[in-house]
Amino acid sequence: MKVAADIIALIEGQPDMMRLLHVVERLALPDCWIGAGFVRNAVWDVLHDRTPDCTRLNDVDVVFFDGADASRRRDDAIEGKLRLTCPGVPWSVSNQARMHAHNNDDPYADVGSAIARWPETATAVAARSVLGRVELLAPHGIDDLINLIVRPTTAFAARRYVVDERLRTKEWLNRWPQLTVV
């Protein structure tokens, strides 16, 4: 795995991942993606000679950007629709148009600027289906992801303890022992 096209091919080759992307695509939400562990875990699993497994995800992070209605109530309604469509999937929906307030940041312009402020560079990645074709969003690039590097984003450089806590509680080093923590 060397370039973004390799990650896209990986996702397109995983029926479970494609099914979830297609379900989210049908919602027709603006600037909508599935991010974080959905992509990161699949890449790290393959790099550890394992088959990606969506059933091992703690949650499926659906992120979108719509300033017209950034209410939590709307996110909850979308989660409800997703749970009816795909029962048993741990959906988590967040309109990034309001998440800047939650994170004490300046307002985000779009999903890309929001996920750029997620804790690790390898986590700040998302995928979506557009007319059945996978697109990848990686504001920090994919080098850390494909090189198995856990590095705080600039937004979390001064809050390294958050990344350390995520490493410990999510047991990443046990699951993916080839990771390098920077």
Number of domains: 1
The CATH class label is Alpha Beta
Strand segment count: 7
Task: Give the biggest beta sheet.
Answer: 5 strands, mixed
Our estimate of the beta-strand percent is 5-15%
Q: Which blocks of ≥5 consecutive residues have pLDDT under 50? A: none
The H/E string reads HHEHEHEHHEEHEHHE
Name the strands of the widest sheet in spatial order. 3-2-1-4-5
Continuous helix count: 9
Mean pLDDT: 96
In one word, what is the shape? globular
List the helices and strands and how they pair.
Layout: H1 4-12, H2 15-26, E1 33-35, H3 37-47, E2 60-64, H4 72-85, E3 91-95, H5 96-102, H6 111-115, E4 126-130, E5 133-137, H7 143-146, E6 149-150, H8 160-170, H9 172-175, E7 180-181
Parallel strand pairs: 2-3, 6-7
Antiparallel strand pairs: 1-2, 1-4, 4-5
Describe the protein.
The structure is a single chain. Helices cover 42% and strands 15% of the residues. With 182 residues, it is of the alpha/beta class. It has one domain: Beta Polymerase, domain 2 (2-Layer Sandwich). It is globular and about 40 Å long. The relative contact order is 0.17.
